[in-house]
């Protein structure tokens, strides 16, 4: 699933604009929409797909901010990420359990 996020047009040059997405400024193709500096647009895959009224864009931005905060709270409650060193140590410890005993590796067939 893809989500279009509203951004504010900062500058326009030909069919491209610099669009501010809450602090991240990204070049966007605006050939599909009729916009001016200061307008908000929904952008998907580098293309402005729709002009959005300022009030609506600000509501969307607030909604995304709320979602980000809510998911950050969930992430804080999730188990800690296990380090690569811890995984390697665990794998080494587990692999020694399956090594054959010395007596099992000796050649038991004598001619």
Keywords:
111 residues, 3 helices, five-stranded antiparallel beta sheet, alpha+beta, SH3 type barrels, 5 strands
Briefly say what this structure is.
This protein is of the alpha+beta class. It has 3 helices and 5 strands.
Shape: elongated
Structural class: alpha+beta
What are the secondary-structure elements, in order, as H or E?
A: EEEEEHHH
Helix content: 25-40%
Regions with pLDDT < 50 over 5+ consecutive residues? none
Based on the structure, what is the oligomeric state of the protein chains? Answer: single chain
Mean pLDDT: 79
| Total number of strands | 5
β-sheet strand percentage: 25-35%
Q: What would CATH call the class of the domain at 5-77?
A: Mainly Beta
Q: So, CATH architecture of the domain at 5-77?
A: Roll
- CATH domain fold name of the domain at 5-77: SH3 type barrels
How far apart are the first and last residues' alpha carbons, in Å?
68 Å
- Sheet bearing the most strands, described? 5 strands, antiparallel
């Amino acid at each position: 699933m893809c989500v279009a996020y509203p951004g504010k047009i900062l500058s326009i040059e030909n069919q491209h604009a610099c669009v501010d997405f809450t602090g991240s400024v990204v070049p966007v193709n605006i050939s599909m929409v009729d916009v001016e500096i200061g307008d908000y647009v929904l952008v998907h895959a580098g293309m402005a797909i729709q002009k959005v009224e300022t009030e609506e864009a600000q509501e969307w931005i607030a909604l995304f901010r709320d979602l980000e905060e809510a998911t950050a709270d969930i992430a804080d409650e999730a188990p800690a990420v296990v380090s690569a060193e811890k995984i390697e140590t665990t794998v080494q410890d587990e692999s020694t359990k399956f090594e054959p005993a010395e007596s099992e590796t000796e050649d038991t067939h004598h001619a």
